[in-house]
Amino acid sequence: MNGEAVSGVRMTTEQVYGKLRGPRASRVQIQVQRRGSLKLLNVTVTRERVPNNSVEVAYMVDNQTGYIKVSRFANNTYEEFKQALGDLRRQGMSRLVLDLRGNPGGYLDRATKMADEFIAGTRKIVYTDGKGDQYDTQTYSRVLGEFEEGPLVVLVDEGSASAAEVVAGALQDHDRALLVGRRTFGKGLVQQPIALNDGSELRLTIARYYTPSGRSIQKSYQGGHAEYEQELAKRQRQGEYFHADSIHFADSLRYRTMHGRTVYGGGGIMPDLFVPRDTTAFSKYFRRLQSRNLVREFALKFYQDHQPELEGLRFEQFNASFRITDTQLQALSALAARAGLVADAAGLRRAAPLLRTQLKAHIARSAYGKNAYHTVLAEQDVEFQQALRAIDTSTAQLTGN
After folding, report:
1. Annotated catalytic, 69?
2. In this structure, how many other beta carbons lie within 10 angstroms of the beta carbon of residue 95?
3. What is the pLDDT of residues 217-245, one digit of tens each?
4. Residue 149 DSSP label
5. Strands of 220-311, DSSP E
6. Active site residue 187
């Protein structure tokens, strides 16, 4: 790199990053050696800001169903989402699955603008209530949205938090969408940053977020900070991730949607259709393979070794015919053994269905791109499949606007 060796000299990843980074529009010269070739390739890279997209993927599942996954609410999220939604509409989308699983939140105004794309008229999206009225606010829909009619399903789980919960709660309260998955995280505090003289910052909680029906998104701090931090682990111990009937709400937390459906407050947003977490294939051996990045490494090598054959196939052909064999799973285990991971035949058998899907998805990503990756994963995604069934039976179109 710029005449300096970076391979074989025990340089850390951060040190390599430090040499790659630099002023925008400046250049760095890199020599690359590909697997199986002795020839060095000379590459000139012009430094630029690396895009950090928050709309992770958007594609048509079939000729009428679109899918958009939003991983967080960042500065450009609304613009990315608006473009993705428009592209899908031009492809004939008439119903949508919006995936907010694992979305930790972010900029609230981007989230409310997204919700506004689905909610017709002038309707409340979220409001804040603090001590006194100094920090009380109300946010309403106000623009003609891109998708104010048509079946809509929103996927949520225990990783959906803050601004993601605002979107989900508003769509549920207005009977605009059907929520599928598991109860969301429960983070609904408004915080005001206060700069301190030493350069640090204090974030002072000044209010709470509430859904249009009056539900508080924030889960309780009543048991103290330690119990609050362990709340997700408590959900798991009580079986909430696996059984809908393990979740109990007090009558005082009962609210009504615009058209009279019962919903509950008290922390997080409870979906309309509960889907238990599937952990049957999560063996200890599988987790160790993941932690050492061995699944991706094996898939990348497979792609490199079979690139000509893969390039000769359209993705549809690949997806219909390609399957990870038992021999390839054993090869993965052998790679893991060389990396110091003790073989575990039982753990490999238990994780085999999940490993086959993940390996195929990673190979598809290298060969065909990120849409192909998500398409493969979706085939074994029980929450996504439940969302498609809900749309097919028209239960996603609750009442319209």
Report:
1. no
2. 20
3. 998 888 888 888 888 887 888 778 787 76
4. S
5. 254-256, 262-264, 273-274
6. yes
